[in-house]
């Protein structure tokens, strides 16, 4: 097969790479299409790190010129793509979602119909099928998590990061919008001096000018001895999840990903809402979130204010594993199979599409 991955954003890569490795192992031809941006140096470093065959484009429309090649079997996207009608005259499309979180966009990205969309678990499969009965969905699990369950992910070396391996480790992984990040005080790591703190923000918090306040906060926290702030080249949160004892997050899909590890989770409900999400406009915030967000409080410990965070973390770590059955149920619902073989199922499907070998 000849397969192309559309890398509109770097944060698509953690879900793509396990599938890419499976494709290469089976002898298929793979190319990554990257988009020119203000992060080109970073993208080139990552391309070199993984030895990726790449093509560069300026826009989705320019990418279409590459995709209009009848020798291509599949183009894989991490989000919607507005030129599908033209693309489908030449090749097939597959959607491999870049997140499994609670935002309504998870369902909305199927407004444009791909040849197939790979999804995680029967709950969301059935919901997508009811919303888009004419489209085609396949439950494979979540490829991004495969390294955690096929034992290829080794995690971080805490000593090399300047942290104490004898301490419990907190992973703070806020998203960029709506986020809890700006509600954390500048000195918060000092309150947690008896813990290691790994901070893995969303890529936008480190790279986009409009989130400069996020970056300023992050750099301030990184000065504390018990803190390691991820670098931009560390685009994949999976090693951070592997090396952590507890997750602190907000509206991020990381909560559902971390759920698969049966480790405790803290849900920060103290969020910094944009001005157009506040007061009488707060309905826009609720509109942004899907009904799935209601389940977050059942798989985590909700915290309403930063001042209660330390107590909540201490409590959850002392009771770790007490809600394992509840977590298993929700993991099956939102993440699907965690046997480390989601990528294999993706590749098998692509190869056997409609029961006919494509290679």
Please name the defining characteristics of this protein.
single chain, 359 residues, alpha/beta, Rossmann fold, 2 domains, 16 helices, 15% strand, globular, Glycerophosphate_synth
Topology diagram in text:
Layout (H helix, E strand, L loop, with lengths): L1 E6 L5 H13 L3 E7 L4 H11 L3 E4 L2 H8 L6 E4 L6 H4 L4 E5 L8 H4 L7 E4 L2 H10 L5 E3 L6 H4 L19 E4 L15 H4 L4 E4 L3 H5 L4 H10 L5 E3 L8 H5 L3 E4 L4 H6 L5 E4 L14 H6 L12 E3 L5 H10 L5 H11 L7 H10 L8
Parallel strand pairs: 1-2, 1-4, 2-3, 4-5, 5-6, 6-7, 8-9, 8-11, 9-10, 11-12, 12-13
Helix pairs in contact: 1-16
Pfam families: Glyphos_transf
InterPro entries: Glycerophosphate_synth, TagF_C
Organism: Thalassotalea psychrophila
Give a written overview of the molecule.
The protein is α/β, with parallel strands linked by helices and 359 residues long. 34% of the residues lie in helices and 15% in strands. The chain folds into 2 domains: 2-149 and 340-355, Rossmann fold; 169-334, CDP-glycerol glycerophosphotransferase, C-terminal domain (Rossmann fold, 3-Layer(aba) Sandwich). It has a 7-stranded parallel sheet with strand order 3-2-1-4-5-6-7. A 6-stranded parallel sheet has the order 10-9-8-11-12-13. The model has no long low-confidence stretch (mean pLDDT 88).
Compact overview of the structure:
With 359 residues, this protein is of the alpha/beta class. It has helices at 13-25, 40-50, 60-67, 84-87, 105-108, 122-131, 146-149, 188-191, 203-207, 212-221, 238-242, 254-259, 283-288, 309-318, 324-334, 342-351, and strands at residues 2-7, 29-35, 54-57, 74-77, 92-96, 116-119, 137-139, 169-172, 196-199, 227-229, 246-249, 265-268, 301-303. The protein is 34% helix and 15% strand.
């Amino acid at each position: 097969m000849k397969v192309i991955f559309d890398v509109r954003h770097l944060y698509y890569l953690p879900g793509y790479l396990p599938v890419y490795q499976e494709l290469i192992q089976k002898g298929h031809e793979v190319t990554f299409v990257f988009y020119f941006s203000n992060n080109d140096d970073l993208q080139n470093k990552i391309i070199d790190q993984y030895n990726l065959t790449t093509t560069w484009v300026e826009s989705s429309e320019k990418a279409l010129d590459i995709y209009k090649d009848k020798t291509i079997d599949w183009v894989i996207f991490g989000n919607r793509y507005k030129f599908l009608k033209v693309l489908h005259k030449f090749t097939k499309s597959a959607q491999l979602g870049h997140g499994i979180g609670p935002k309504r966009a998870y369902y909305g990205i199927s407004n444009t119909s791909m040849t197939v969309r790979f999804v995680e678990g029967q709950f969301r499969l059935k919901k997508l099928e009811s919303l888009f009965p004419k489209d085609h969905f396949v439950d494979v699990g979540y490829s991004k998590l495969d390294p955690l369950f096929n034992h290829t992910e080794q995690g971080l070396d805490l000593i090399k990061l300047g942290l104490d391996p004898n301490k419990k480790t907190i992973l703070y992984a806020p998203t960029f919008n709506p986020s809890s990040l700006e509600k954390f005080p500048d000195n918060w790591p000092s309150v947690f001096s008896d813990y290691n703190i790994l901070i893995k923000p969303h890529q936008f918090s480190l790279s986009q000018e409009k989130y400069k306040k996020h970056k300023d906060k992050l750099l301030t926290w990184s000065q504390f001895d018990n803190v390691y702030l991820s670098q931009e080249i560390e685009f994949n949160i999976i090693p951070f999840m592997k090396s952590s004892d507890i997750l602190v997050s907000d509206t991020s899909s990381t909560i559902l990903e971390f759920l698969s590890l049966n480790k405790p989770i803290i849900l920060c409900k103290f969020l910094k809402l944009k001005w157009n999400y506040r007061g009488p406009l707060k309905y826009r915030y609720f509109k942004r979130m899907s009904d799935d967000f209601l389940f977050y409080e059942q798989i985590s410990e909700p915290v309403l204010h930063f001042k209660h965070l330390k107590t909540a973390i201490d409590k959850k770590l002392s009771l770790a594993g007490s809600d394992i059955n509840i977590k298993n149920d929700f993991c099956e619902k939102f993440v699907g199979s965690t046997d480390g073989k989601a990528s294999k199922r993706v590749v098998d499907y692509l190869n056997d599409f409609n029961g006919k070998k494509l290679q």
